[in-house]
UniProtKB/TrEMBL annotation:
Record key words, sorted: Signal
Native species: Hortaea werneckii (Black yeast)
Domain Glutaminase A central intervals: 361-482, 542-663, 699-799
Sequence ranges assigned to domain Glutaminase A N-terminal in this UniProt record: 126-346
Lineage: Eukaryota, Fungi, Dikarya, Ascomycota, Pezizomycotina
Name of protein: Glutaminase
């Protein structure tokens, strides 16, 4: 086994700070260590200092985790996380207790960074030290193996000129919800390469209780807390250890083996690390030295659940166990894999951020980032590589297992992120019902009343939602099959993450022949320089795989559809997924879901070659949808009613989303589609369904005016914090808000998104992202209190729709074309056409080659869009940008291919992106520009072209160096974000050009738009080859 390269870790840890983009929203709670339902620790007070409260389990109960920093030169100790300082006496004799400056939190889909400043000791004039706690729970769609590991990373990153000591401890609250439980612990050191490399604490209940929860925490499983060999360790009473560290800055490498209760003389398990920064610095006291240390936190359970499978009640082993012979082997691999896990997580974080920004806004970027770990935090991987399974806990609303109407709102996340995981979620439901253990003709509500006991409902008395669950399963089934559509054979469709991997391995093909359609490689290989990647989701055999998957359960699909045929058009008194609202007959939205389910079955039958079934269910669905409109829409045609017979009511008709996602609505909506407004997705934005998927039976299954009507109604029903669920209450469900918004007009969509973002910034809820909240007053819980639920996967509804239907799923809901251009710089009045044309001739004469012109044009938007209210401010901004561009170019030129050299580039890139975004806001707020101001801006921009050209060229030339460091995905993400941000800048500035200057802009700037896009597209294509 390879040894751990500490130097590499320092650089990788630092790179985490580089790719975690600035966050704009301030939610009340942030994810820290979130991997599954039992390893789920959150920052409880994300709007306050992290030391003001203890971290918490998702239920709100405290989790013992504390971090302290000490400056030995001043004998001062600083709390960073948790309330460890409650154990300290600030007597001024042995140490001083003080508080750092908290710089705030940044987060993306996988990472949360908490950053602090610590003053230079003894009131000297030296610079402050910067310390960051970086929590990484990597989401790795290209590596199911990594995703299945129940462990997260904690990096401590320091930068300063004076020495710092850091202390971290955990307690027994991580292994039991019963605070009176007795726990046992041990300490071990892992040897490999003839050296001691890792230190690990192991903690568990003295008497484990298999498949038992207390306060939603597991009462079985072992906590593994791991650090490198050069840290000090100690187990003992919390106050004693914290005071010892505060006095001495270290621990004693001792283990207290008096096993006891969790809170009985509270035993903690601690590491300390000394950073000798002053010894590494030069004689200059201002030189900033960087260093890092890595810890991992794992909660290992074996088995993970019990499941009523086809062979009977089965203890289910964790998926990772098929690849590692022991817990120690898993922990060691996970620790040493930090470099690759970071790169893969960065790829997903950057791609999802780019896609969210394209599809929504900065706010949408943050909402998507906050939702991703929460979805995966409700799941646990099990099974074998031949038959993987993904178990899911409902969380907070109740403890149901594999709840169909919870998987359903979560599934846009899985379609976008990795459709393979959706198949793993559906597998246990299909296996159980195919085995005949569920007696009803409709699909089951869940696999067990309380996770982790998936024992089924042999009596058929699960929660009664028959139309809901049948519609959900049929819709998800077709969506999954569509994700396997191979298209014309030239390009693979589906998730962009499927591009990693070279088709199916021999092992997977063999497993598929044995009936395991979505198998993983049984023996992990190194591919593209990375160990343990999945095979590509799609291949030339994907259509065959879809049919094989369907054929196994085709009788079930027909059975459920027959139920919908009888009961969906006029659903009897029953619950929908919104069961907290109570029973109700003739629910308009529920009926629509059932009818769409019948329509989905017609497509599934066509895929299977069952022409008779396809025709029959198509006719039924088309007949029903006409009647549904008659029953469900208000008399004036202005809205959908909550129930057919509830006149004066209204509802959020979120089932429309399924109609669009399944490609039943191909024609334009909300004013029609502009043929010039085709949304370019690029090679990375592959569709979920190919253009060769089964043909649609009619132009629009649901009439276009239904979409338009609902979108207009939502605008009138909007409240302070969003769109209420229906006319009964002021509460809403964020999952359904996002599904409804995805198929509304752009104005309505933006309005909903902005109001949800406002709620996230202001809500008084104090738990992980709730999906059920009041849209007025303080935006609190309405009772019941929902939180940490995987249904926030519907926050990805925009992104899943963008990829659907050959990449055209969202086009029908765009009200106008959004041209992206840089023509803002030159829009002359008629009497100055000659003057501007001469300027253009000079401009292009200095860039005779098309590529160089493209480079220049690409950065015109970047550099010229920092427009303020007067010319002097513009020129000052351009001077500053010129200096920044030169600085970035110098950093790229001097880059030698090492991690420390990459850090300034990352920092400069992030700063540039933030400047662009800030410039957009400034431009939107500025007064209209005069013609003279426009000319001055253009001239100043022109003077920067040579520096811009060199910078772009040097960035492209540096790609091989970034490849070796696994940082190319980060650069790729920055390029995409810069392109999107520049588009926004250009449009913002365009709006400020006087109307009489715009007449001839198109003629004078012909070709610049194409050159601009080509420049970024070329750079993006270059970095995509990673």
């Amino acid at each position: 086994m390879r040894s751990f390269d500490a130097t590499t870790f320092v650089a990788v840890a630092a790179s985490l700070l580089g790719y975690t983009s600035a966050s704009t929203l301030t939610p009340p709670v942030l994810p820290l260590i979130v991997r599954n339902p039992y390893l789920s620790t959150w920052l409880a007070n994300a709007r306050e200092e992290p030391w003001s409260k203890w971290p918490m389990f998702y239920t709100g109960s405290s989790m013992g985790m504390s971090v302290l920093a000490s400056v030995p030169e001043s004998s001062t100790v600083y709390p960073l996380l948790g309330r460890a300082h409650d154990s300290l006496d600030d007597d001024g004799h042995h140490y001083n207790l003080s508080y750092p400056t908290y710089r705030g939190a940044q987060y993306d889909a996988s990472t949360t960074n908490l950053t602090y400043s610590i003053p230079c000791p003894n009131d000297s004039k030296g610079s402050e030290a910067e310390l960051t706690l970086s929590f990484l729970s990597p989401i790795t769609p290209t590596s199911t193996l990594r995703q299945s590991i129940p462990a997260s990373y904690l990096s401590v990153y320091v930068k300063g000129s004076f020495n710092l000591d850091v202390y971290i401890d955990l307690n027994g609250q991580w292994v039991s919800g019963d605070r009176g439980s007795d726990i046992v612990w041990s300490f071990s050191e892992t040897d490999f390469d003839d050296a001691k490399q890792l230190k690990t604490w192991k903690v568990k209940r003295r008497t484990e209780q298999l498949f038992t929860e207390v306060g939603d925490q597991a009462e079985w499983g072992t906590l593994h807390f791991t650090g490198p060999a050069d840290v000090h360790h100690e187990a003992g009473t919390s106050a004693i250890l914290r005071q010892r560290f505060s006095k001495s800055g270290t621990l004693q490498n001792r283990v207290d083996n008096e096993f006891r209760g969790i809170m009985q003389e509270e035993p903690v398990f601690a590491f300390s690390k000394s950073f000798n920064l002053s010894a590494k610095a030069s004689s200059s006291s201002s030189e900033q030295i960087e260093d890092s240390v890595l810890f991992t936190i794992a909660h290992i359970q074996d088995p993970v659940t019990q499941f009523a499978s086809a062979r009977g009640l089965t203890y289910m082993r964790p998926l990772w166990e098929s690849y590692f012979y022991s817990h120690e082997a898993l922990i060691t691999y996970h620790y040493l894999d930090f470099k690759h896990a970071t790169a893969l997580a960065a790829n997903y974080s950057e791609q999802s951020a780019y896609d969210a920004y394209q599809s929504g806004s900065d706010n949408y970027q943050d909402i998507v980032a906050l939702s991703a770990r929460q979805v995966m935090g409700a799941t646990s991987f099990s099974g074998t590589p031949e038959n993987p399974i993904l178990f899911l806990k409902e969380i907070s609303s109740n403890g149901n297992s594999q709840t169909v109407d919870v998987i359903f709102p979560a599934f846009p996340f899985f379609l976008y992120t990795n459709p393979r995981w959706l198949a793993y979620l559906l597998e246990p439901l299909l296996e159980h019902m195919l085995s005949g253990q569920y007696p009803n003709q409709y699909t089951m509500h869940d696999l067990g009343t309380h996770f982790p006991n998936l024992t089924g409902h042999a009596d058929g008395r699960d929660e009664y939602m028959p139309v809901e669950e049948c519609g959900d399963m049929l819709i998800m089934g077709l969506a999954l099959v569509n994700s396997l559509s191979y298209g014309d054979g030239k390009e693979m469709a589906g998730s962009s993450w499927s591009s990693l991997g070279e088709g199916k391995s021999a092992a997977v093909l063999e497993a598929a022949n044995d009936g395991s359609i979505f198998a993983l490689p049984a023996a992990l290989e190194t591919r593209e320089g990375v160990f343990g990647l999945d095979d590509a989701w799609l291949s030339a055999t994907s259509d065959h795989a879809a049919k094989k998957w369907l054929s196994r359960s085709y009788p079930l699909w027909k059975q459920w559809t027959s139920y919908l045929e009888e009961f969906s058009l006029e659903p009897q008194n029953q619950l929908s997924t919104d069961d907290f609202a109570g029973w109700l007959a003739l629910q308009t939205n529920l009926a629509l879901k059932g009818i769409i389910g019948i329509k989905a079955m017609s497509q599934l039958a066509e895929i299977m070659g069952e022409k008779k079934d396809a025709k029959y269910y198509r006719n039924v669905s088309e007949t029903y949808i006409k009647k549904w409109e008659e029953y469900g829409m208000s008399r004036d045609g202005g809205r959908a009613k909550l129930a057919y017979d509830w006149y004066g009511s209204w509802t959020t008709l979120y089932s429309l989303y399924a109609d669009a996602l399944l490609c039943f609505h191909p024609e334009g909506s909300n004013g029609g589609s502009d043929s010039t407004a085709q949304h370019s997705l690029g090679a990375d934005q592959q569709p979920l369904a190919s253009n060769n998927s089964p043909s649609n039976d009619s132009a629009n299954f649901i009439p276009d005016h239904i979409y338009t009507t609902q979108s207009r109604w939502y605008a009138t029903a909007m409240q302070k914090y969003g769109l209420p669920l229906d006319s009964r209450h002021l509460y809403t469900k964020s999952d359904w808000e996002f599904q409804a918004a995805a198929v509304a007009s752009e104005d309505t969509r933006t309005e909903i998104l902005d109001r949800v973002a406002k709620w996230l910034n202001e809500t008084v809820t104090d738990r992980p992202f709730t999906d059920l909240y009041v849209t007025e007053r303080k935006g609190g819980f309405p009772g019941p209190n929902f939180f940490a639920r995987p249904v926030v996967g519907s926050h990805f509804a925009f992104l899943a729709l963008e990829r659907a239907c050959g990449g055209k799923g969202a086009e029908a809901f765009r009200t106008s074309s959004q041209s992206h251009s840089i023509e803002v710089l030159l829009r002359p009045p008629q009497n100055t056409q000659k003057r501007i044309f001469i300027f253009l001739q000079i401009f292009t004469a200095h860039s005779p080659k098309e590529k160089m012109l493209a480079y220049t044009a690409a950065f015109v938007g970047l550099l010229a869009s920092t427009v303020y209210a007067d010319g002097a401010a513009i020129l000052k901004s351009l001077d500053e940008i010129s200096a920044s561009t030169n600085k970035l170019n110098d950093a790229v030129v001097s880059f030698k291919g090492d991690f420390p050299g990459a850090l300034p580039i990352a920092a400069d890139s992030i700063a540039l992106l933030e400047d662009i975004k800030s410039g957009t806001k400034t431009a939107k707020a500025s007064d209209p520009l005069t013609f003279d101001e426009t000319i001055k801006v253009a001239g100043a921009t022109f003077s920067l072209q040579s520096t811009v050209n060199m910078t772009l060229a040097n960035i492209e030339e540096a790609k091989p160096k970034f490849d070796k460091l696994l940082l190319s995905p980060v650069i790729l993400g920055n390029l995409k974000l810069d392109k999107s941000a520049t588009d926004d800048f250009s449009m913002a500035v365009t709006e400020k050009v006087p109307e009489n200057l715009q007449a001839t802009a198109g003629q004078l700037t012909a070709g610049f738009d194409a050159a601009f896009d080509a420049a970024f597209d070329e750079a993006i294509a270059t970095y995509k080859s990673f």
